[in-house]
């Protein structure tokens, strides 16, 4: 057994710490989504994780840090969706399908849901600007796809790119408001249904 | 000129008072929607109406009364939509069209938008219960129409009634979040586009 292999037997302390911090972030944001940021205390979080509040302070300084980190990760996930679409050479309809699928799967997670459930006035200016830019980027990609789809004869001419994008993101952003509780609808079911329904609504 | 006609020349004091009170409610709720309930003062409202704060007190006691009255009127409007649909004998697809059209036109008004822009914790228990019941009623009507439309062969069998309704109301409830500013998209355009897109997405 080489030196490298010996060290790989267990994860490094740093890797373990990262995973535990991520558990704090994800459980924190789940509680914020369920009960609201103001109504959630670090005591609630400690109880939910089965650890002491003192242990939490080893990973984060305060509630705000949890929310900020959750929003940062969530915006990055949307940026990755936009990046993937921009660097792909799909047809217009396929592009719209890819965005609906990826966005539905993300918004159905706790980190995804915090993007719509966090009140506007809880966002720092920096996060607000970044979130708006990322949403606008995805909105532009759908509009562009609709326009190109009409030109290519794939999409009906009566489809308004702006209103089509608004309907799609409205339906998707509304998911965290109704898909709660102990047995939420799987993201894949939501994605399949929304893709089918919106794409059939667009096709010539 | 008869006595009755003489009195009809000008509106009664009571009718004038009702109209002025309604102007206070509608302007108030517009400001709440634009700037948030907490950030809107009765001074802002007086300024916006070009009257004194003292005059406002002749019509309402406080900000809370404005919001409560706006929500009451808005819920009643949704109840009327549900009532109309329940007492009509349209086909499944026509029923869905009627709901999309009426809901789009209502949600695009200031009174309609306050239903989604007012934060949950601003609602009294009574209003919360009533609003939820009315929304559930409309949701049930769409689901029922989808189920019946599938049975009648009008709607594709792959349409899930629950997810179809969620997509429609998501798209509609999202309208107040993007359709702001000085030149909002007319409600009729939103309604036409959403009807076309959702109905084509449903049809066999």
From TrEMBL, chains A, B:
Pfam families: TetR_C_24, TetR_N. Residues 18-78 form the HTH tetR-type domain. InterPro entries: Homeodomain-like_sf (IPR009057), HTH-type_TetR-like_transc_reg (IPR050109), HTH_TetR (IPR001647), KstR2_TetR_C (IPR041490), Tet_transcr_reg_TetR-rel_C_sf (IPR036271). PROSITE patterns: HTH_TETR_2 (PS50977). Keywords: DNA-binding, Repressor, Transcription, Transcription regulation. SUPFAM superfamilies: Homeodomain-like, Tetracyclin repressor-like, C-terminal domain. Residues 41-60 bind DNA. One of its GO terms (molecular function) is DNA-binding transcription factor activity. This is TetR/AcrR family transcriptional regulator.
């Amino acid at each position: 057994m080489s030196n490298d292999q010996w060290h790989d037997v267990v994860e490094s302390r740093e890797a373990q710490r990262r995973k535990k911090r991520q558990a704090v972030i994800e459980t924190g944001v789940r509680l914020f989504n369920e009960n609201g940021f103001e109504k959630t205390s670090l005591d609630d979080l400690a109880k939910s994780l089965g650890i002491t509040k003192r242990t939490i302070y080893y990973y984060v300084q305060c509630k705000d840090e949890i929310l900020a980190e959750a929003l940062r990760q969530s915006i990055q996930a949307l940026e990755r969706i936009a990046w993937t679409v921009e660097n792909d050479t799909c047809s217009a309809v396929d592009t719209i399908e890819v965005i609906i699928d990826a966005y539905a799967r993300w918004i159905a997670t706790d980190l995804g849901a915090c993007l719509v459930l966090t009140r506007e006035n809880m966002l720092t200016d920096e996060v607000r600007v970044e979130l708006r830019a990322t949403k606008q980027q995805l909105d532009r990609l759908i509009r562009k796809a609709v326009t190109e789809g009409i030109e290519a004869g794939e999409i009906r001419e009566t489809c308004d790119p702006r209103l089509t994008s608004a309907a799609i993101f409205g339906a998707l952003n509304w998911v965290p408001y109704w898909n709660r509780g102990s047995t939420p609808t799987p993201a894949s079911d939501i994605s399949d249904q929304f893709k089918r329904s919106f794409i059939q609504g667009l096709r010539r």
